[in-house]
From TrEMBL, chains A, B:
Residues 1-24 are annotated as: Disordered. InterPro entries: Homeodomain-like_sf, HTH-type_TetR-like_transc_reg, HTH_TetR, Tet_transcr_reg_TetR-rel_C_sf, TetR_C_16. Residues 22-82 form the HTH tetR-type domain. SUPFAM superfamilies: Homeodomain-like, Tetracyclin repressor-like, C-terminal domain. The keyword DNA-binding applies. This is TetR family transcriptional regulator. The keyword Cytoplasm does not apply. Keywords: DNA-binding. Residues 45-64 bind DNA.
Length: 206, 206
């Protein structure tokens, strides 16, 4: 079954009426936002989101390749974690820190990046459910993917240490805007921070 | 003039009536909160806070040793930056990273630490004036003090890099609570993060 077919066949399972031309994708995103807020990232399935949106599960898969892509759409993240993090991590393990910091900056150093970071941080610091969802998403889809690709010891610890530096970079560069880090050229930031991320990922920690 | 004398002589300069036993200190803190929000940390003087609170400037000095102490009271920070950071930085420069991470954890690893951090982060991510005040406070009284004590090159850059790691630690450990970093023993966190802070403070950066 191809994606367009799924899209067409999904209609009968919807609850209630749907006006012609309504935005099914937007309805799925709204349902997913509620599901993530209520149950967190881990416990939310694409099937449950489909049920809540009143659409066939195949329709959710039609619009979103996986749960990470759906979450990225909910949070208006400027990247798809599944594809892009795997790509950033692939390659020489001795330079993974450098690639990761560069990917981070290329993703967030945009006009839309700052307000998205601020919204994520504001939600996580005021709502426990938002903090939980972000924590589970970061652990599984961002830093979990980074360390899984490297096959090192203590992957969760390494992932959480990288998270501390990159979330801190987001806070210092985009939210609080501490100078000169806030206005520095991306390649300078890469040079300063890459050794830290590299150490957290691959150096002995004890 | 001793502090108690200042307290007594301050009454005539107040605007309006003051009921007996009113909390002058609390009034100064309220006036300071408004002044910091309107003008930022740098541009707010103790004299301007006194004027806004309708008290003699000497009375502000009676309750607060300096502007940093007044800001700490406004934000309910569990430490006085001026004294405690200078003390944490003093000593062998080869171990300043270790002392700084240990001081950070001893300050914030308390029951009250997490809600205070969350309030600071929530304010900075939703109000530009709060972000500015926090940025100016961190630059001058926290990371500015740290690097001033060391006399290294590019002090602002080093300060902002340390800020990125320690603010990130606060986010990962207290706000988002990424495990295992969130539940790790303080001395383990010191061991993992101290080399990063040490490098930002004293190693060649180019």
């Amino acid at each position: 079954m191809t994606a367009p077919e799924r899209d067409a066949t999904a209609q009968p399972r919807r609850r209630g009426r749907r006006p012609a031309g309504s935005d099914t994708r937007a309805e799925i995103v709204t349902a997913a936002r509620l599901a993530f807020a209520e149950h967190g990232y881990e416990a939310t399935s694409l099937r449950a989101v489909a049920r809540r949106a009143g659409v066939d599960p195949a329709l959710v898969h039609h619009y979103f390749t996986d749960k990470a892509a759906l979450f990225a759409a909910c949070q208006q993240l400027p990247f798809n974690p599944t594809e892009q993090i795997d790509r950033a991590v692939a390659g020489d393990p001795d330079h993974v820190g450098e690639r990761l910091v560069r990917f981070f900056l290329s993703t967030w150093d945009s006009v839309e990046g700052r307000p998205r970071i601020m919204a994520l941080v504001a939600a996580a610091s005021t709502h426990e459910d938002a903090a939980r969802t972000l924590r589970e998403f970061l652990a599984r889809e961002v830093f979990g993917r980074v360390v899984a690709g490297l096959g090192t010891d203590v992957p969760e610890l390494r992932g959480s240490l990288v998270a501390s530096q990159l979330v801190g970079l987001a806070m210092a560069r985009y939210v609080v805007r501490v100078e000169p880090l806030a206005s520095a050229e991306p390649e300078d930031v890469v040079r300063w921070l890459a050794p830290t991320v590299q150490r957290y990922l691959t150096a002995p920690l004890d």
